[in-house]
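Honest question from a wet-lab person: if I give you the sequences of every part of a complex, can you actually get the arrangement of the whole thing, not just the pieces? Trying it with mine:
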Amino acid sequence: MSRSVRQRSRWWWLAGLALVLGQAVHAAPLAISQLMASLAKQPQGAATFTETKYISILDQPVESSGELLFIAPARLEKRTLKPKPETMVLDGATLILERGRRKHVLQLKDYPEVAGMIESIRAALAGDRKALERVYHLALDGSNERWTLVLTPLDPKVGAVIARIQMDGVRDEVRSVEILQADGDRSVMRIQKAETP
Amino acid sequence: MTRRGRVAIALWLAFVAVCIVLVGRTSFTADLSAFLPSAPTEEQQLLVDQLKSGIASRLILVGIEGGTPAQRAQASQALAARLRADPQFLHTANGETVGMERDRQVLFDNRYLLSPTVSPERFSVEGLEVAVAESVDLLASSAGLLVKNLLPRDPTGEFMQILDALGGESRPNMADGVWVSRDGQRALLLIRTRAEGSDTDGQERALQAVRAAFQTGAASGLQLVLTGPGPFSVEARATIKQEVTRLSGLGTLIIVSLLLLVYRSPTALFLGLLPVLSGALAGVAAVSLGFGVIHGVTLGFGTALIGEAVDYSIYLLMQSERANPAGGEPEAGWITTFWPTIRIGVLTSIFGFASLLFSGFPGLAQLGLYAIAGLVTAAAVTRFVLPHLLPATLRIRDVTAFGTRLQGGLRPLSRLRWPLFGLFLAAIVVLDMQRDTMWNQELAALSPVPAADQAVDMAMRADLGAPDVSYMVVVTAADAQAALAASERVGQQLQGLVEAGVIASFESPSSYLPSVATQRQRLASLPETDELRRRFQAAVVDLPVRAERFEPFFADVAAARNHPPLTRANLEGTSLAQGVDALLVKAEGRWTALLPLRALPETSQRIDAAKVRVALAATGLAGVYFIDLKGESDRLYAGYLHEAILLSLAGLAAIVGLLFLATRSPARVLRISLPLAMAVAVVIAGLVLAGQKLTILHLVGMLLIVAVGSNYALFFDRGAAEGSIAPRTLASLLLAVTTTVAGFGILGLSSVPVLNAIGMTVGPGAILALLFSAILARRA
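Yes, you can. This is the full assembly:
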């Protein structure tokens, strides 16, 4: 409970800061704090996604699609509809995978390689710069209209799995997430914002 | 003092000394095991073993409340770490993944021995194609990253098959890395003790260790909640101990005050209590000799019995012709005049309680033995020792005048004769109408655990998704391998029940450690390398993978083919070993495998036993039993309740027979037994009308009403034979009933159901037995 209060007060602070900075440096390149503030403004969001994985052991890329739902600050749901229905829910530090009749409950800290990847998406959607900077070096390029955020792992343990994560977006929307793995495999997730309900 | 007197006193002292030694060695318990049968069938024996020492009985549920979620999580981790290092505990789980690296390594390395899907079909061209296609699908999923690196070594996904088979259970909620309740307000842990559930001392030590471990690590403001069979029996023992001490202290105080008030002589008081104390000692010593341990309830009952045992000395002291200072021994007169009546009273009590000795319930048999030993000793000491101890100069207050006034008060009572018959009739009608519903058939009715604590236990179990272990299949076999093999056969049937929606899931020791035969069978279904390569090549023709990438798989399969079967020793230090140890146990040279079943949530935790039995019968195996712990123990209890009712009726018949032998007059037998029957009927009808469900302890109460009341009825009968009951006798009866009510009635205040039941029955019953005897007494 206290956690969400803290989070909200930080958003206010960031939002205020963004307002001041936004007026001062209008034409200048987008600042990370600015982007984070505008991302953080949305308490929740629903989207559809198409994910393509290029895996070396496979001759062809594999594709999956479904829905994404994010509820600030810590809940991310990924409902895959094709090729096989599957649900992944990240809530706090717990990851729940449901596939067919099987349900797996995992602790993120037990799977650092997965944690780094999933948490990056969640933290980006939440505009949680601190969480991102705990794990990654951030580099932002572009303007508010079209930006690219590149995350490079700080922890060598995560780096052994993930080479970098690149997010592209327009204003306060993340449009795609590309994850490049250390072994050269990569996945690209395209995100289409759903109509606000 | 006469020589005979000296011998009597010496014998008595020696007897008391022996009793004291025996009592000093006695330990006492307070769990429900005393109310479980002692000479059951094989199936019942399994049930009793499970209740006493099974996995369910060793389980302690731990809740940490108060503070912040982070503090609770930290306390949970600190507590778990300490308990994991303590050999008193077999297993501690709080949601942390401890030793997962090693678990995964063992599972992965032995996947071709452990995976239930390994079969010749799976390693055919078609089987391989299906399995690899499935793995490719999994790569596309969110879990893809987890399994991607495994694919070259495990393209058929055996590792995931094992994880699925082991991890299919629903898991508790998590927060901050530990298990929490659904509302998040309580951190949860699950502990299994090395001590058996019925080992109350061991459970108490374990609980102390948990509390100490919690204290050293926890932030202030956090509270520890412990439930489960162990904590409950420890707490029940403490409650019974405390209540027995408090209530018996109170009862004794009242009795002593009354006696002092009436006797006006400390010497008389002291001497009057000697038979009682001897009786109490003899009772405990007898039970200790006969049963090894004494149940807390027996002890509570025993202290109440003081109220009856003291009656004998009351009769001796008050009825003796002490007013005559002419010398001689006044007690000699009492012995010839009154002792025969009292002797019949003692004998009726013994006949009544003797019926309990035949009960299959050790608890009831204990009560019976205690009562018989206690009453016989008290009566014998009163008759053979006490007269020699009474100083010739002893004077107690003469109550003749009071008795005469009482006598006057008796006369109008006879007018109540017809209303009393009406009341009796009404009571009979009530009992007849409620005949089928007035008994509580559930063993839990005897449980001394407060409803609030049981509710917390239920809530924590539900939150833990947890091993209620109400239903299980028990497989017994001569050796571990046979037990595992039988578990596998049973498991196949149970899997069918899962798919048919009869049960939600089940656990089996063979999921953790398959039998050697099954492991060999699995290995035999692995083709040799060249053949595997050929089949794999054919299988992946239409799949987006190339066979050349899978050399690690071919190498692993080749290695597995030469792998010796897995044994318990290979699993050391893994959670698999804990699973095997919990579910595969050796007892008395035989091996028992336990397969706990889980009910579907929507069936309110009930399982259709008939369907399970049919499925088990289909295995054709001997030594396979389905156990419904609660249903079975209730059924057992109901059976023994029925048996106890029949035994009590037999006891009553014996009492009637004894009375006939003593009086040689059917009319007198009727006059003596009618008030007792009326008292029992009216008291029980009253309890039933008040909404009480009768338990086996109410039955004991009824026997006590007969045992106590028979003395009163006998004295009135004797009085009637002499014309009218003597004033002093009447006064002694009034004092006797008062002490009985003080002793037993006070148990009615107890919060322990079994003690309460005796108190609520005997307290009113004793008064009514005296009153009804007085009303029905024949007057000259």
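Two things worth pointing out. Chain A touches chain B through 35 residues (CB under 8 Å). Residues 2-193 of chain A form a domain with the outer membrane lipoprotein receptor (LolB), chain A fold (CATH 2.50.20.10).
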